[in-house]
Design brief:
This protein has 120 residues and is mainly beta.
């Protein structure tokens, strides 16, 4: 059974940085697409960044390009989201997801989410 467990959220001032981590287990992820989504208060869930596990291809929402970076660690079966130059509008619950297809993946597995709050 696939499990995704996020960590690393917290409270940070605008302009600061956070690093989110997602530990994946229960499958061989070489054929998967991994991604981070977020849901801000009162808004729908939105795509943030995606990564093709095999090959390392990445894509990003326009709102985060140049500030957020998705990466993978084969040995640890982990996907990270490095978040720099954070803005108050980045405040949301961030979710790790795993699925199939690239670049338009379908996501089947979700983590429980981790809260990121950016103060102005």
């Amino acid at each position: 059974q696939v499990q995704l467990v996020e960590s690393g959220g917290g409270l940070v001032q605008a302009g600061g940085s956070l690093r989110l981590s997602c530990v994946a287990s229960g499958a061989t992820f070489s054929g998967y697409t991994m991604a981070w989504f977020r849901r801000a208060p009162g808004k729908e869930r939105e795509f943030v960044a995606g990564l093709r596990w095999s090959g390392g291809f990445t894509n990003y929402a326009d709102s985060v390009k140049g500030r957020l970076t998705i990466s993978r660690d084969y040995a640890q079966n982990t996907v990270a989201l490095q978040m720099n130059s954070l803005k108050p509008e980045d405040t949301a619950v961030y979710y790790c997801a795993a699925g199939e297809g690239w670049p338009n993946a379908k996501y089947y597995y979700w983590g429980q989410g981790t809260q990121v709050t950016v103060s102005s």
